[in-house]
Design goal:
Elements lengths: L1 H11 L10 E5 L3 H13 L3 E5 L2 H11 L3 E4 L8 H11 L5 E5 L4 H10 L3 E4 L4 H16 L6 E4 L2 E4 L4 E4 L2 E3 L3 H12 L7 H9 L8 H14 L9 E4 L3 E4 L2
Parallel strand pairs: 1-2, 1-3, 3-4, 4-5
Antiparallel strand pairs: 6-7, 7-8, 8-9, 10-11
């Protein structure tokens, strides 16, 4: 016990960044891994604070309001899964990056459902870990897009998943909403069918790109004044599709 306390104190007194980019909370019960992680983030000009158990991690989270959290799953007192859910309940904007040796897809899906922003498995590359953390921080700093989007005579509320055209409600499926949202986020950009399948449907191996064509046809029928001569969901022959507000 004394040795671990001395190790923690000694590690905390290692070189601190002269200019801090913010505080990273590391919740990890292995003293050697604590030291590795602290050094990684200190060298990237963050202030790294460490908790060796779940309860201490929760206390530090509430007190320090960290920029991001590196979270192990197997912890004393409070499990990583419980902490992940609790953190997101306290602060939805704080990125949580899970660091664990568990690699099962089911665990990854569960953690994402609980609110984790990313998942890195041990052993890991320090460069990959810091890149993932920095990417998660950047995503959280981006201004939230407006939930209501208007074009022509259409008004789309992505949060409520409702559409009105000329004041009248239009019914879209969940996939049609997702496709339309991706188009609005990439307005004026030519998007190939493969890009749409990967980004909207998440297919790794897809049977046919006709899936995209059929979905866009349905959107045109619901949102375009004349679906045979679209003005907003345009076909770019030989390339893909483009949304023009």
């Amino acid at each position: 016990m004394v040795h671990e306390m001395e190790l923690t104190t000694e590690a905390q007194n290692e070189i601190l960044p002269t200019v801090s980019l913010g505080t990273i909370l590391i919740i990890e019960d292995d003293p050697r891994m604590q030291k590795v992680l602290r050094r990684i983030f200190t060298e990237e000009c963050y202030v790294a604070i460490v908790a060796g158990d779940g309860q201490t991690g929760l206390d530090l989270f509430r007190r320090e309001h960290p920029l991001a959290v590196i979270l192990d799953l197997i912890l004393p007192n409070i499990s990583g899964r419980e902490l992940c859910q609790t953190f997101k309940g306290l602060s939805t904007e704080t990125p949580i990056i899970v660091l664990s040796a568990i690699t099962e897809v089911a665990d990854k899906v569960l953690l994402l459902e609980l609110g984790a922003d990313d998942y890195v498995t041990k052993p890991f590359s320090p460069r990959e870990l810091t890149a993932r953390v920095q990417a998660a921080i950047r995503r959280q700093r981006k201004p939230a897009p407006p939930t209501i989007y208007r074009f022509a005579d259409c008004e789309v509320d992505f949060k409520k998943m409702t559409v009105r055209r000329s004041g009248r409600p239009v019914v879209l499926t969940a996939h049609e909403f997702k496709l339309l949202k991706f188009f609005t986020e990439n307005a004026e950009r030519v998007l190939t069918r493969d890009v749409l399948l990967n980004e909207v449907w998440g297919y790794n191996f897809y049977p046919t790109t006709r899936t995209v064509d059929n979905q866009i046809l349905k959107l045109r029928q619901k949102l375009e004044p004349d679906s045979a001569n679209p003005k907003h969901l345009l076909t770019i022959y030989g390339a893909g599709y483009k949304f023009v507000p």
